[in-house]
Amino acid sequence: MHFYIINMKISNLLIQWYLSNKRNLPWRKTLDPYKIWLSEIILQQTRVDQGTAYYHKFTENFPTVFDLANATEEEVLKLWQGLGYYSRARNLHFSAKYIVNNLNGEFPSTYSEIIKLKGVGDYTASAIASICFNEATAVVDGNVYRVLARYFGISTAINSTKGIKEFKNIAQELIVAEQPGTFNQAIMEYGARVCKPQNPICDTCELNNSCVAFGKNEIQNLPFKEKKIKIKKRYFNYIVFKMPNKITVIEKRISGIWQNMYQFPLIETSKEIDIEELLSNKKFDELFQQKKINVKLFNNDLIVHKLSHQHIYTKFWVVEVDNCELDTIKWSEIGKYPVPKLVDNFLSEYKFN
Question: Which PANTHER family does this entry report, sorted A to Z (predicted)?
Answer without folding.
Answer: ADENINE DNA GLYCOSYLASE
